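Message: A physicist's question: would you kindly supply an amino acid chain plus fold tokens?
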Amino acid sequence: MSFSDVSRALAQPVRFRVLARYLAQIGLVMIVLRIPPILVAWQSADWSFMQAQLFNMLVLLTICWPLAHLSVPAEIRNNEVMVITALSFVLAALLEAVPLATAGLNGIDALFEAISGVTTTGLSTMTHLQDYSTSLLFSRAWMQWYGGLGVVIFSIALLLLDRSLSVQRLIISDSSETRDILGNARSHSLKLLLLYSALTIFIIGVLWLAGLSAFSAVTYALSGISTGGFSISDTSLAAIDSRWVQGLVAMSGFLGAVSLPFYYRFGRNGIKELVSNPETLALPVIILAVIGLLFLCADANAGDTMARLDYAVIMGLSAQTTTGFACVDVSALNDASKLSLIFSMLIGGSMGSTAGGIKILRFLIVLRLLQFFIERTALPTHAVLAKRLAGDKLEADEIERVLLLILIFIATVLCSWLPFLVMGYPPLDALFEVVSACSTTGLSAGISRVELEPLLKIVLMVDMLLGRVEFLAFLVFLYPRTWFKIGNNS
């Protein structure tokens, strides 16, 4: 019997009752998440926006309450976790698009904004933000905040499907030693929620004490810790007069780009955890390298040395953490600066963080493999050299997954780039926009706007979704055997 025959015989399609049950439970959580935007809309007397949110709550409750009580098996399959992950972001975006449409956005722009929000990307077609209500501006930041928490929880749920180095870096309790995916995800979720909320409150306090208004401090903190980057001004951080405060907002993205489980483990293990965690150590090193590149590449007419350094620090932090705040007009940067930012966005932040990109751990694994092959050439042919990263053995299947994901990431960027080239957009600007979407960064070279062709908006929306669930979940979603039993069972 061939591998293909075995695969067909053993394949287990998803169970629709399981999908309905757990998606409905996520829907009930979404009802609770409607409360803060409703309260802000009520406080600001934005009745139409409030009615749209209440309508969402009623529809969700009607659909999700009976489905959430379906009887399903206790054990959930790997492909079901993947499908639930992919669908949860799609359904959340569709839900969020309704209030945005009532606020004056057309259908595709409302969906674009909602997908950008729940995937914590930050690309936007909205302009004249100062003309929109405080309830809508808060809702944009709020959807990024809960989207960021969902990213962390679901990434851990996906990673708990294996016992790789990635999982070892995300363990925060002994419960992950079992194969109970849902039990592990739930036990981790509460701890992560407390950590995430504590960091958010801390950032709000710091920004408020630094001089921002209460509303600005809250919205920037929600968008910052989620590495989302939605701003309440068309000019993003440039609207903040103080460079010091701009830097503090950018630093909120740094806190979000560090793996949330790392904070828990650091509190338990102290400095030993930092020393043994190459990914967390590499993040500030890479940021400093990007800042140096941006400083060297800055135009001579960009200002004095301090102005160029300020720009390099803020943009370097924003790109590497995939937060997407900007203190300058990205479309006006020179090609060298744009290429530096593209490289930074591609790498992204840490595993188990709200940041996007390929992730630093995978980047380090690739560098370690290159080092291994170079070292191998100097050894006798019979010598055995174990592949390790910071003392942890790299298993063959993990290396395979890392290389596969990077290959898919690059292929997605290239395929998405092509339609922009066909429609006549500048090649480097188009590449910048696509990489920003795939890495869920949100920095824009000026292409994302209301006038952008609908087809290209769809391309960017797909890129944001693919980048947020790291591609593999959507590949599982699209795979026919995920849904149907194909072939002979004998």
